[in-house]
Amino acid sequence: MGPVRIVIVGGSFGGLTTAYELRRRLTPERAEITLLARDDQFRFVPSFPWVATGRRRLEQISFPLAGPLAKKQVRFANETVTHIDTAAKVVATDAAEHPYDFLVVATGHRSANEAVPGLGPFDGPGHSPMSAPETEELAQAIGRLLAEPGPVVIGAAPGASCIGPVYELAFELDHLLRRRGLRHQVPMSLLTPEPFLGHMGMGGAGTIRQLLEAALEERDIAYRTSAAITRITEDAVETADAAPTPSVCSIIIPPLAGAEAVAASEGLANPKGFVPVDDHYRHAVADGVYAVGVAVALPPVDATAVPVNFPKTGHMTEQMAKIAAADLAARLQGHEAPTAELSARCILDMGDRAAYLAVDPVRPPRNRIPTVSEGRPWLVAKMAFERTYLAFARRGKLVPTTLGW
Questions:
Q1: pTM for this structure?
Q2: Strand pairing of 188-191 and 221-224?
């Protein structure tokens, strides 16, 4: 009997962590692992706000996937998945067909920019940092803002699940403008669908609400909660419940949808394109299929006046990948691995300092009182973690820390 065939779709945190974990548990003689990704580069997505504000260049937070995967004896195919046939157990790409015994869907998301008319950046005036090309375009827009200052709106659309970058971009842009002596020429507004600041799709945590309220107020950043953004124009952001907010540079986080190929594959995803799974991140019906990261269907923690979806961070994605990899390896031995509730640890950049937040589990009620801390050392820690993660990942290793981001 030959090695079991494992196909992983996606080369970001979920795909890379799954590949490394599976190879740690399964020898090449036991498992033939193939990773498929349409981008041949790994991108450290949490640093996209730094790329947008000029602290980093994209190449500083990226590395080619082929080398580290080859060291782990994981085959890499730089191909775009077009369809997944869960009955025949075949993944079709733009170049080949890949049969599998086990499949791990780690495709990430599709930004549903069409949910907000005018949310470009390539077909409208709005900007978003949700992909590498969009982030580089946003960096150019911020460059134009520095040359021709004017009002700015930073926010998230109804149904968004990635709220953290809204706060980071607001604080980082404020810090950049102050350093340039331009802050007095740039009125700033933050519009969020959250019912209160710091909800972040997880019902809030500890004193993060009070920390964010104080930080925005001391920086003269106006904010509105339960804001339903409906349209972006060249000079304003429109909402359902108030007059348009003037803006010459509108940075809006869109709601997310499942990747196109996943959403279009029969029996794989829910109507929004996300994959339903159990506690081990196994598909609810399809045999041998797992899903991790943003591709996973996770319900909101509560009902809010304006929809806010469950957050999915890099740290949570790694937890899912490790649970799925452990269970897949255990199933090959005739049993299943233990599972665990997701926790969250993140460092939120505030420009001149940062805030650290730790919750366990993510969904309230929680076993522990959340940890909320603020200070310059956390910003240094965030920068150090980025460098450490990239250095380890380039060498085919996972960072041995629970700090998170």
A1: 0.95
A2: parallel
Catalytic residues: 162, 346
Superfamily name with CATH number, domain 114-255: FAD/NAD(P)-binding domain (3.50.50.60)
DSSP structure string for 359-371: ESSSSSS-SSPPE
Say if residue 404's pLDDT is above 80: no
Q: For residues 270 and 273, give the distance between their C-alpha atoms in angstroms, rounded to a whole number.
A: 5
d(CA 197, CA 310): 15
Nearest C-alpha neighbor of 103 from the set 265, 267, 286: 286
403 has pLDDT over 60? no
The torsion of the CA quartet 209, 210, 216, 219, rounded to 10 degrees, works out to: -160
CATH of 4-111+256-340, one of 3.40.50.2000, 1.20.1560.10, 3.50.50.100, 3.60.40.10: 3.50.50.100
Q: Where are the alpha helices (DSSP H) in 226-313?
A: 260-264
| Location of each CATH 3.50.50.60 domain in the chain | 114-255
Structure tokens at 300: 């909101």
User: What would the pLDDT profile of 324-369 be if each residue is shown by its tens digit?
Assistant: 999 999 999 999 999 999 999 999 999 999 999 999 999 999 989 9
Residue 141's SS3 state is helix
Q: CB of 262 within 8 A of CB of 82? A: no
